[in-house]
Amino acid sequence: MSNCSSLLLGLTDIDVDLVGIGADGARDVRVLTAPAWVGRCPQCAVVSTRSKGWVVTRPKDVKVGPDFPKLLWCKQKWLCRNTSCVRKQFTESVPQIPPRARFTVRAKKEMAAAVLDGWRSVAEVSAAWGTTWNTCHRAVVAMADPVLANQLAPIRVLGIDETRRGKAKWETDPATGIRTWVDRFDTGMVDIAGDQGLLAQLNGREVATVVAWINSQTPEFRAGITHVAIDMSATYAKAVRKALPHARIVVDHFHVVKLANQMIDDVRRRTTQALRGRRGRACDPEWTSRRRLLRGVERLTDQQRQKMFHKLDTFDPDGDLVAAWITKELLRKVMACKYRGGLRYQIAAALEEFSRVHRRLQGPGDPHPGHHSRHLAAADHRGDRHRLVECPQRRLQPHRQTHRPDSVRVS
Ligand SMILES: [Zn+2]
Question: From the CA of 45, how far away is ligand 1's center (Å)?
Answer without folding.
Answer: 6
